[in-house]
Design brief:
With 130 residues, this protein is of the alpha+beta class. The protein has one domain: PH-domain like (Roll). Helices cover 20% and strands 41% of the residues. It contains three helices and seven strands; from the N terminus they run βααββββββα. It has a seven-stranded antiparallel sheet. This is PH domain-containing protein.
């Protein structure tokens, strides 16, 4: 028997499917070829100032974690996975749309924006954890 302790994963208090607005880098210019070949996506990129990435938002004891959901993950493109400390969240706002709602976590350096549906229960748990 070894004295090594097994790797433990943090307890997930709640999870919810979302799309995260991954912001485009400051100063990024949309290439001309995109406007010519994919005008609708170029317009959405300009309007949203980012790209929507589908995934799952998890509430952990001390942070929120976003994990991209993909059909195919490879070593070359493993997907997006990040955590943000709950202590840094200053405000949570939701706004209803026609078929979805926008969820925003405001913090000292900006805002993290998500698109989701039926998030009331998840938002209540995040507010309680803060």
């Amino acid at each position: 028997m070894s004295n090594e302790s097994p790797v433990t994963t943090p307890e997930i208090l709640a999870k919810h499917p979302v799309a995260w607005l991954q912001p485009i880098p400051e100063g990024y210019k949309i290439p001309i070829w995109r406007w010519v070949l994919l005008p609708a996506t170029a317009l959405m990129l300009k309007r949203n100032k980012g790209v929507w990435v589908s995934g799952e938002l998890k509430l952990l004891a001390d942070s929120i974690q976003f994990t991209q959901t993909r059909m195919i993950k490879s070593a070359r493109n493993p997907g997006i996975d990040w955590k943000f400390p709950l202590a840094n969240i200053r405000n949570i706002t939701t706004s209803k749309g026609v078929a979805s709602e926008t969820l925003e976590f405001e913090h000292d350096t900006g805002t993290i924006k998500f698109m989701t549906v039926r998030s009331e229960e998840f938002v209540a748990k995040v507010r309680q954890a803060i």
